[in-house]
Amino acid sequence: MDTTPWDPEGATTVLDAEGRVEPGAIPAGLDLRIYYKALVAARCLDVRLGRAGVPMYASFAGEEAPLVATAMQAREQDWIYPGLRDVAVALVRGMSFEELARQVVGGEGGPGRVASASLRIATGTDAIAMHLALAAGQAHGQKLAADGGITFALVGEGATTTGVFHETLAVAAACDLPLVIVCRSQLWPSGAPAEAGVLGDSVADRARTCGVWERRVDGADPLAVYGAIGQAAARARDRRGPSLVEVVVTQLLHDPPAHRDPVERLRRHLDTTGQWTATFQDVAEAEVRGKLERAFAAAQAGVA
User: Fold this and answer.
1) Do residues 156 and 83 lie in contact, with contact meaning Cβ atoms separated by under 8 Å?
2) DSSP per-residue codes, 71-104
């Protein structure tokens, strides 16, 4: 299949548009059906959040791969510093449907935010990208404690134009912090709007100039995303310094071709390898949707 304006240049892809995988590209120990069900759960959550009346809610449909992969790569002792739209991280990390709905509806940390000390999911910040500085501090503490833990921070490309982003890169590189920054860069086939805040170059290029190990991957390819975040996490655990993984995503609200949907692309692979059926899909969706409906109904009744 020929590439289209929707396909990013210079981004690593191991799962092609038809669901074919390069030999040896599937990460060792990754159960693709479990990974797929987590992506489906994130998609169902996005749909339910859109109906929950959360103020200024913005859909993350099409951006599920970096959220799910980060949560799956994080170990129990690791911390995750999510952005304001990264609720799916909590669901995959293990937060109950009831607690997630209660926090989202209650707005305890702000509209749509979730946090958990027991799951080591940090509270979001109002100031754009400020959570990156807090994540760097967390990573520094982990380095001093030598407890084997690392820190993940999720951010959008608009935040990479801020001073705190570059300051975090500089400090992380200078101190060899066990920090993994996962940046979602939107693909703009028709040109980015002024409010996108992009500089025209890749975020990975900017990280490299700061001496930070980086990778740039296609966000429509869940396997490439999982593998790159896994590489970055392994480096951090081995105390080989910070990393940045730039994931080029395509929001589905722009109505892109079907192969730009990470859920659909992995589904095509499972289908061609005999691991997917319509029944499997229906059961996976029905289970998550049912739990979400019950949890949000209870949460909304509690604040009524």
Assistant:
1) yes
2) HHH--TT-EEE--TT-THHHHHHT--HHHHHHHH
Mean pLDDT within 34-43: 98
| Dist. CA 225–CA 218, nearest whole Å | 7
Domain 60-90+120-272 has CATH 3.40.50.970: yes
Task: Judge whether 109 and 123 are in contact, CB under 8 Å.
Answer: yes
pTM of the model: 0.94
Using CA atoms, how far apart are residues 193 and 203, in angstroms rounded to an integer?
A: 17
> How far from the centroid of its chain's Cα atoms is residue 302's Cα?
30
Instruction: Please report the pLDDT score of residue 55 as a whole number.
Output: 78
What average pLDDT does this structure show over 234-251?
Answer: 97
Q: What digits encode the pLDDT tens for the residues 132-153?
A: 999 999 999 999 999 999 999 9
Q: Which of 135, 167, 159, 92 is nearest to 236 (CA)?
A: 135
Indicate the pairing of strand 151-156 with strand 179-186.
Answer: parallel
